[in-house]
Amino acid sequence: MEISNNIIGLLVASFETTSSAVTAVMNYLAELPHIYNGVFKEQMEIAKLKGSDELLTWEDIEKMKYSWNVARESLRLTPPAQGAFRETTTDFTYAGFTIPKGWKTFWTVHTTHKNPKFFPNPEKFDPSRFEGSGPAPYTFVPFGGGPRMCPGKEYARLEVLVFMHNVVRRFKLEKAIPNEKIIFYASPTPEHGLPVRLQPHEK
């Protein structure tokens, strides 16, 4: 059982969450042309400085400021993980309820990310929320927070941005099912798998 739990944990952490994050990003890029255009402009500026067969470098990734803001806003609205259990280390009171030491609590990413106190008009897709110093600490937590933050955060950023670069600079995106529902299993999943029409850019 311990081996099984560890394997499932690795699969969820290294595959399920990243693929869910990439799916969410593609969904918003296909849905919001003005967001797509901003990402396309940034990615083409990077591509123009490279040879046709030249791979991306870490320096290129660091230039993808707007693209990463778009990815983070996707993670805010459609976080791959639901939340996590934590054990209280001391008695405390929250919203009029006393939580005893040793109890298990579950914090949710969704309600944290949609708190209007920290994210005005929380349902709106707005990458500018992440400009400058960005959201206050512990208000944007797709990777958790504190000493138990996901150790794969930077690897996930790399995966998402490389995927965005290679798709957006080659194709325009159009959703085959415009109002496709998102179903929540372990991670948010488009009901029909997010079929997308890829239209090559004119050369």
Describe the structure.
- This is Beta-amyrin 28-oxidase-like.
- Pfam families: p450.
- Its cofactor is heme.
- InterPro entries: Cyt_P450 (IPR001128), Cyt_P450_CS (IPR017972), Cyt_P450_E_grp-I (IPR002401), Cyt_P450_sf (IPR036396).
- The protein has 203 residues and is an alpha+beta fold.
- Helix 1 packs across helix 4, helix 1 (2-31) runs parallel beside helix 6 (153-168) and helix 2 (33-47) packs antiparallel against helix 4.
- 42% of the residues lie in helices and 16% in strands.
- The longest helix is centred in the first third of the chain and has 30 residues, at 2-31.
- The mean pLDDT is 92.
- It is globular and about 65 Å long.
- A hairpin with a 2-residue loop joins strand 2 and strand 3 (97-99).
- The termini are far apart.
Using only C-alpha atoms, the radius of gyration works out to 19 Å
The helicity comes to 40-55%
What fraction of the residues are assigned to beta strands by DSSP? 15-25%
Biggest sheet record: 2 strands, antiparallel
Question: If you average the pLDDT, what whole number results?
Answer: 92
pLDDT < 50 stretches: none
- From the spread of the alpha carbons, the general shape counts as globular
Give the N-to-C terminal Cα separation.
55 Å
What structural class do helix, strand and pairing data support?
alpha+beta
> Strand order, biggest sheet?
1-4
Keywords: Heme, Iron, Membrane, Metal-binding, Monooxygenase, Oxidoreductase, Transmembrane, Transmembrane helix
Subcellular location: Membrane
InterPro entries: Cyt_P450, Cyt_P450_CS, Cyt_P450_E_grp-I, Cyt_P450_sf
Binding site for heme: 150
